[in-house]
Amino acid sequence: MKSPIAALLAATLIAAPVAAQVPTGEMGPLRPDQQAFRTLYEELVETDTSVTTGNCTTAADQIATRLKAAGIAASNVTVFTDPAHPKEGGLVAIFLGKSKTLKPMLLLAHIDVVAANRADWERDPYTLVEESGYLYARGASDDKAMAAIWADTLIRFAESGYKPGRTVKLALTCGEETDTAFNGANWLAQNRRDLIDAAFALNEGGGGDTDGKGKIISQSIQVGEKIYQDYALVATNPGGHSSGPVRQNAIYDLSEALLKIREHEFPTEFNDTTRAFFAKAGAVRQDELGPAMVRLAANPNDAEAEKIVNTDRFFHSMLRTTCVATLIDGGHAPNALPQRVEANVNCRIFPGHTPAEIGAELAKIIGNPAITVSEVRADKPLAKSPPLDPAIVGPMEKLSAKYFPGVPVIPAMSTGATDGLYLSAVDIPTYGVPGLWSDPDGNGTHGLNERIEIRSLFVGRDYLFDLVKLLAK
Q1: What is the distance, to the nearest Å, from the Cα of residue 322 to the centroid of all Cα atoms in its chain?
Q2: Which one of 15, 94, 235, 242 is most buried, by most CB atoms within 10 A?
Q3: pTM, whole model, 2 decimals?
């Protein structure tokens, strides 16, 4: 998924134009290596990998064939599947480095996509269409651009005879877009931890933004994410005939509980990433929010600054745990008092707290022991925030200064979720990288007519190739 960081930074920096913005512009004729990459990318994009009608295993096999044709030993290319999920396979490839002491690095991307209804699209979602400097298709951006770039990186290494100091691993997985489906990243973490063992991983979640008029205004590094957790709230009642209403009504009881959750404000919190975000992003704003962000980063107890910052809903969310009602179901007949009413409350938990802790807090907020609060899923690992490691973040910033001079590079914590949580849970710190960029509307990701700017694809390819070489040298 495309991280909410993108929209957040776009809104921040459009409010305060950067002095040295980078134009996007048009691409010239493709070099032979770029044409080879485009062919790989096109094949991947045009292979349907949605959970409803697609097949990730087919896409993994296609990439495996290309890696082996480039000279990577078959023994270092693994297509994995779970017998219960034969269409949701993935791939792990290992490109050996020279060092016997440096721990490997891992390149992670997901190859599954959100399902697309052809009748709703202007173009066939599973045919790559080039128009007006953009490439349109489902997965053109999320996340097949990064998946293709990572595979292309290892192919370029193999074909050029390049030998990195550090071993570079590649994991292309299925299931990121469908929470209840088989998840390849989780399967690898739980069943083949040895296959993906690494000092750190690079993933989606970071990236750049334009102002919507052809200027790149920001690049971000995702350093951590909130914990996603759904809770089921259930109110029950003996019910009865609706002609004889009573005050104790399951719908009313649950409504009162949800209103209490709406009014509750979880406390403001910071970690190293969010403190850096508010300080750096606030410093480039030229409105009331900018100085307030800087003051709040310096002093979390500054109530006036917090009040100003909280007027932005995404900043508000980045500062705390949030919980919101998202689904409700109840009653069994229009002429009967409700016997059971259930609501789903979705929480995005600030790192450092557990779902059990927040569930207990919800029960306390509601203050009605007749309403049960339970975790909808208790099998997902807890996201862990990686450190702001200069050895990893530094090269990203250095390369960004070369490729995008004058554009701020800002570490940020995602309020959404990526497959990075499964790696962080087994102690592989995972970072969302800069390089690729999108427009303020998110380029149709998860929606209609998804697209990527052609320059984003090819400049991002060069940036990420250089980044892997820097981190693996």
Answers
A1: 18
A2: 235
A3: 0.90
